[in-house]
Amino acid sequence: MFKKIILLMSCLVMLSSCANKAQTGAGTGAAVGAVAGQAIGNNTEATLIGAAIGLMLGYAVGNELDKADRMKINSAYETIPDGRTSQWVNPNTGNQFAVTPQYTYQNSVSQDCREAEILVTIDGKPEKMTQTACRDQYGNWRAQ
User: Fold this and answer.
1) Which of 51, 72, 119, 136 is in Cβ range 3.0-4.6 Å of 98 for a Cys bridge?
2) Which DSSP letter does residue 108 get?
């Protein structure tokens, strides 16, 4: 049983390079939970319960890191003038972000919208994209 858990953990580590933070957190949490469940209960049921609890907690933690960056992007839509750049480094991941709103306009249903250039540097590899966000009925910016 222990060998199966080690194999599972190895597979999760390899797959995590293709996943987002929430998925990576879920996989890592499941693996750690399975090991803890097996150590505590010494049976399959305890291992499965530990994996399920670890999966949920790991997903929540990984997803929260993504939310912090999304909140900063939304803040840039709200406060940064067109042509200016907001930059930050996520202290938990080391990922670097630069958001530059390009222009502001109203769409066909009279929503305020902004187009922005977003440069994200992950593991030293820059990725540039253009994103449009419009205000919803509650005044929050939502990516289109």
Assistant:
1) 119
2) T
In the structure encoding, which two tokens stand for residue 57, read together? 């907690």
Residues 106 and 129 grouped into a single domain:
yes
Please give the structure tokens belonging to residue 122. Answer: 């992950």
Indicate whether 80 and 138 sit together in one domain: yes
Q: Show Cβ contacts of residue 5 under 8 Å, excluding neighbours closer than 6 positions.
A: 31, 34, 35, 38, 47
β-pair type (141-143, 96-106):
unpaired
Strand pairing class (125-135; 112-122)? antiparallel
Asked if the structure places residue 71 within a domain, the reply is: no
Per-residue pLDDT reduced to its tens digit, 31-60: 666 666 667 777 777 677 767 776 665 554
Count: domains in the chain: 2
Cα torsion 31, 37, 40, 42 to 10°: value is -100
Order of strands across the sheet that contains 125-135: 86-89, 96-106, 112-122, 125-135, 141-143
Q: Are residues 81 and 125 in the same domain?
A: yes
